[in-house]
Amino acid sequence: MGTDTKIIIGVIVTTVLLLVGASIVLSHDNSPKREELGTAGMSIDKTVQDLGNMKVSDERTATFTITNTSQSILRIWGVSTSCNCTFASITINGKTTGEFNMSMHMGDTLKNWIGEVPVGQAATLAVTYRPSVMPVTGPVSRQVTFSTNDPKHPEGEVSITATVL
Question: Residues 16, 69: one domain?
């Protein structure tokens, strides 16, 4: 076997090993496992809020209250919006997160955020709709989803609706 053939085979083997290693590292799921976060209970004051008629240049925010109804810490994570024009933030004990958006548009800090709502307390989920980001007219419905350690409500969802003029 010639030197050139050995070099080519070495490069191919090295490339395959790098690709396999990279795929293993990149596919590793760092998201929290629900069973590791304990169990809690929650309630949401409403699941839909109508923002009414809006111009494309308007911006409106709806608020939802997520209450910890259990005797354990309620954990919230995996907050994501259904459209790039919709933003969400969560306030717990006076501390507000940055703006959550579609998963592909968020940095790791927000993607990996886990909020803890103490026993008997509530978090405020603010959902802001900015039609100018993705201009449309007519009726719209946008959602915010999140995960919790409440076994009865492992996934939460709230919606805002509006009519863009």
Answer: no
List Cα–Cα distances, 26 to 13, 19, 79, 106, in angstroms: 20, 10, 21, 17
pLDDT, tens digit, 9 for 90 and up, residues 6-37: 888 877 877 777 776 656 655 555 555 656 66
* 108 plus 50 within the same structural domain: yes
Handedness of CA 14, 16, 18, 21 (dihedral sign): negative
Q: Which amino acid is at 128?
A: T
* pTM across the whole model: 0.79
CA-based nearest residue to 59, from 118, 131, 115: 131
Burial of 95 (0-12, 13-18, 19+ CB in 10 A): exposed
- Based on the structure, what is the number of domains in the chain? 2
Confidence of residue 38 (pLDDT cuts 50, 70, 90): confident
